[in-house]
Design goal:
The complex is a heterodimer.
Chain A: H1 5-21, E1 29-34, H2 36-44, H3 55-69, E2 77-79, E3 85-90, H4 95-114, H5 125-143, H6 145-157, H7 198-201, H8 204-217, H9 232-239, H10 244-265, H11 267-286, H12 292-302, H13 312-329, H14 333-338, H15 342-346, H16 355-365, H17 368-375, H18 378-383, E4 386-392, E5 397-402, H19 405-416, E6 423-431, E7 436-442, H20 450-464, E8 468-474, E9 477-483, E10 488-492
Parallel strand pairs in A: 1-3, 7-8
Antiparallel strand pairs in A: 2-3, 4-5, 6-7, 8-9, 9-10
Helix pairs in contact in A: 1-4, 2-3, 4-11, 5-6, 5-10, 6-10, 11-13, 13-16, 17-19
Chain B: H1 4-23, H2 25-31, E1 42-48, E2 64-67, H3 80-83, E3 96-102, H4 103-113, E4 126-138, H5 148-161, E5 181-191, E6 193-201, H6 208-228, E7 231-239, E8 243-246, H7 248-253, H8 262-276, E9 282-290, H9 297-311, E10 317-323, H10 331-340, E11 346-351, H11 357-365
Parallel strand pairs in B: 6-7, 6-9, 9-10, 10-11
Antiparallel strand pairs in B: 1-3, 4-5, 7-8
Helix pairs in contact in B: 4-6, 6-11, 8-9
Classes of the chains: A alpha+beta, B alpha/beta.
Chain lengths: ~500, ~375
């Protein structure tokens, strides 16, 4: 009972109109019906038909094909953040599945368009990716497949060392103006004056004296960068001794990493939002009575609780429902927080009806970290049986750690912060005054995987061409790991 | 909308995998990881260093949040930690990934790395494979195979010849005679058949360690010969003071306590060959693994006779692999070496430990027989 492109086109106006009537606001959506193999290929390419040549796409494809063949996984839909928004649907799905998926897609597309964290992304990324492919291909023709491929491997190894928040904020050290010796130029304060009064108000002798004083006061050793730099890739782009083509390739990898970053930062919200809307539209409008069973099966599969872990579709969906309910009933604010009569709380209903408005606001302004931090409540955690888990070293297994709210929230936020990746900064680019690179892992309770760290340092060395050091914690002791191009060293240090 | 690039990226990935396996082949051969992972046609291989390394959190350090029943202290089911939100995963060691290869691909790698020559099959070929290929055209056939273009051409020709063709109004109507159909030809590909007869000493002096070596050897011999001969059969003989034919499972698990009379196995092998595998139709391979400790000098002599007069004339090659054991004297190897060392149908190989398997396989298969 498969569906044709024609069926999709026939359905599209109805669903689109419906989505609009609920207030969803999206780029034009183009649906493409594809077979499973094309779907797997697209998924391996992150949804983009043309990417630069690289074996890891082949590896992803190999894994996806295997998963599909063994019936372990099936991709229903794939939607990419572009304008117009391209959405791929699997051709073997029944009509009811397609309806659900199309409703789901419109919500994703609304999220892409309106969520703050996507605001800087390039909506013409299909073209940009194709341009990247052309450039990389040209380099391959010029410098050989292995040379370019090896370099891409190195860049990909560092791909996560970007500053996920930099597109949205201005960091202190953003002023990159530096003097010749690498230190920021000190300024001499002058008093404001008319031009003809200048030499009276700011006498040249005085200015000279001030300059001298500054010169004397100059700290002996200035570190560069002046502020720790979290966008390690940018730092390398600007300061590593790279050839032009290498700089370009590194820039490509960095640009693509920033493009994909918001999707990782809003996984729970984005999937929750899309699930909320497919459920709303299907059950209220689109569902034909004879499709109810099939719909229920598909939807329950999407939001299924996999014992012991969090399904982002489920948790996001439930949280959006919870927020809507709370703002409809006025379960927020001082009065609500201060009430400690559980019976009163249970029957609380101020009939505010602000729920819908609130969730639209939430989808605009939050990312997963702030979403969970703001809206995960103790009541919610208890009702949905959330728990925290941790690795028990004695029993060598993961165990349920606690059902205490603050622990659950802490664990959950920790796993979402910086997209679940260690925060690593460039602290010093002239370490030991020998041009060595010095990084610092901002330790937040979880140690690095040492083997991976070593292999990654090897790749960093490849770009920096001088020894690479990273300060971190190994076996609960502060250490500096170093790689000098041949050997690894580990030195224990005093302070953390 | 097939994506043209994927084929390249995929092939490049396969090429890289094969390269990595080749680099590590000696290790794979001696530690036997692959054997337990062999399916019917595919073998799954744990491959280190294929993943791209990144700074990431260590295994088992990071906790997370989950949903469901259970008391604090209860274990999560397997893999929970791995799939948790933003989790690092709890797989051990460095970046290991399972990749799959077909047995033929594996054999190719083995052949390239060990520089094994392809085997020149001997003897008459037994016809085994039939292949249908659409190669011809004929005038009759099922409608589903009608060749539209040819049919149209025939009709056009006929109309031009008979003057019915009007350039102004080109209407081609095929009639019965014009119809053409695709036809196929069955090609038979002569292929050589081969049989391997494995013999193993299961007497008390053969320990698990020795048997493991035999198991590894046979895995690679099988892989290579399967690649060379599509219709490969395998027979298994175990012996202590007597010989039995057994299935593969038993071959590797059976343990007897008796003494060792090697000639019993050779007699049985000879019987099997005479009964089932006419020499002019079959390529016959015999491998015998033992710790070289035979019952008596008389039996050594009898073995020699059996080999020289009966077995060697019938087989492509006879491989004798001697594993080392604390209890074995290892004299059988020396005996064969002394008396049959010049016969190139007999290949002798000593396999003191797992490390030696690599070279032993090269001994056995390196002659291209």
């Amino acid at each position: 009972m498969s569906v044709t492109q024609k069926d999709i086109l026939a359905l599209q106006p109805e669903i689109e109109e419906l989505a609009r009537s609920y207030g969803l606001d999206f780029f034009p959506v183009i649906f493409e019906l594809v077979d499973y193999d094309t779907m797997n290929q697209l998924a391996a390419y992150g949804g983009f038909p043309i990417r630069y040549p690289h074996w890891r796409f082949g590896m992803e494809y190999d894994q996806l094909s295997k998963g599909y063949r063994y019936g372990l996984q099936k991709i229903y839909e794939m939607v990419i953040n572009t304008n117009p928004c391209y959405a791929y649907l699997m051709d073997v799905n029944a009509l009811v599945d397609q309806k659900l998926v199309m409703a789901h897609v419109y919500a994703h597309c609304d999220f892409f368009k309106n969520n703050f964290y996507f605001s800087h992304t390039n909506r013409k990324m299909i073209d940009e990716m194709a341009n990247h492919a052309i450039r990389v291909r040209r380099y391959i023709d010029r410098f050989g497949l292995e040379t370019v491929e090896n370099f891409i491997d190195v860049c990909l190894s560092l791909e996560n060392l970007i500053d996920y928040h930099s597109p949205y904020i201005k960091r202190k050290g953003d002023n990159r103006e530096v003097s010749d010796n690498g230190a920021p130029k000190p300024r001499i304060k002058k008093l404001k004056s008319k031009k003809y009064m200048e030499k009276f108000i700011n006498p040249p002798e005085f200015i000279e004296a001030q300059k001298k004083k500054l010169e004397e006061e100059k700290p002996e050793h200035l570190s560069y960068p002046a502020q720790p730099e979290r966008d390690v890739l940018l730092f390398l782009l600007e300061h590593a001794p790279l050839e032009n083509w290498q700089r370009d390739v590194l820039g490509i990898i960095r640009e693509e990493a920033y493009y994909f970053a918001p999707q990782g930062m809003t996984k729970i919200m984005n999937e929750g939002w899309a699930t909320y809307w497919h459920a709303t539209m299907m059950t209220r409008n689109l569902l034909h009575p004879k499709e109810v069973v099939d719909y229920a099966e598909h939807h329950s599969g999407t939001v299924a609780n996999h014992p012991g872990r969090l399904n982002p579709y489920r948790i996001g969906y439930l949280l959006f429902q919870d927020i809507e309910d709370r703002w409809n009933k006025g379960k927020f604010g001082k009065e609500w927080e201060e009430c400690d009569d559980w019976r009163e709380k249970k029957n609380w209903d101020k009939q505010l009806g602000l729920g819908r408005q609130k969730i639209f606001e939430v989808r605009k302004l939050y990312n997963d970290v702030t979403f969970i931090d703001t809206f995960l409540t103790e009541e919610f955690a208890r009702e949905h049986k959330l728990f925290s888990f941790a690795y028990n070293k004695e029993n060598k297994r993961y165990e349920i750690e606690s059902r205490e709210f603050h622990l659950i929230k802490q664990r959950l936020l920790q796993s979402l912060t910086n997209m679940g990746q260690p925060i690593i900064e460039v602290v010093e680019a002239n370490y030991k005054n020998r041009g060595e690179l010095f990084l610092k892992h901002k330790f937040e309770g979880v140690e690095l995987h040492v083997q991976y760290a070593r292999d990654t340092m090897r790749n960093l060395f490849h770009l920096w061409k001088r020894p690479v050091n990273i300060q971190t914690i190994v076996n609960e002791k502060p250490v500096i790991l170093s790689f000098n191009g041949q050997d690894y060293h580990e030195v224990e240090i005093e302070e953390a | 909308m097939p994506l043209m690039n994927m084929e390249n990226d995929y092939n490049r990935f396969r090429q890289i995998i094969k390269g990595k396996i080749k680099e590590n082949l000696r290790k794979y051969i001696s530690n036997g990881e692959m054997i337990g992972r062999k399916g019917k046609e595919l073998v799954s291989i744990p491959l280190p260093q294929i993943d791209i390394p990144r700074f990431r959190f260590g295994d088992n350090g990071q906790g997370g949040a989950g949903q469901g029943d259970g008391e604090p202290g209860e274990p999560l089911s397997q893999g929970d930690g791995e799939e948790g939100e933003g989790q690092a995963g709890n797989e051990p060691g460095a970046h290991v990934r399972e990749v799959e290869l077909t047995m033929d691909e594996l054999a190719e790698i083995l052949g390239e790395e060990l520089e094994l020559p392809n085997i020149e099959p001997r003897g008459k070929k037994e016809i085994v494979s039939h292949k249908d290929r659409y190669t011809g055209i004929r005038r009759v056939g099922p409608e589903s195979l009608r060749h539209h273009k040819r049919t149209f051409k025939e009709a056009l020709k006929r109309q031009i010849i008979s003057g019915q063709f009007n350039v102004e109004k080109p209407r081609i109507v095929p009639i019965r005679d014009d119809y053409r159909y695709r036809s196929w030809k069955t090609t038979t590909k002569p292929e050589s058949n081969a049989v391997i007869i494995y013999m193993m000493d299961v007497s008390g002096s053969m320990w698990e360690e020795q048997k493991e070596i035999v198991r590894l050897e046979t895995f690679w011999i099988d892989t290579w010969l399967h690649y060379q001969y599509k219709g490969l059969k395998t027979r298994y003989i175990v012996h202590d003071a007597r010989a039995y034919e057994v299935d593969r499972e038993t071959f590797f698990t059976l343990k007897e306590n008796g003494g060792t009379v090697i000639s019993t196995a050779y007699e049985l092998a000879l019987k099997i060959i005479e009964k089932d595998y006419p020499v002019d139709e079959w390529n016959i391979y015999a491998f015998h693994f033992s710790d070289g400790d035979n019952w008596s000098r008389d039996d050594n002599k009898y073995c020699l006779e059996l080999l020289r007069d009966h077995l060697l004339p019938r087989v492509n090659m006879f491989g004798y692999g001697q594993v080392e054991s604390t209890y074995g004297s290892g004299e059988f190897y020396d005996y064969l070496e002394e008396h049959l060392g010049d016969d190139d149908r007999l290949i002798l190989s000593q396999i003191p430990d797992k490390e030696a398997i690599y070279d032993s396989i090269k001994d056995f298969l390196g002659k291209g027989k």
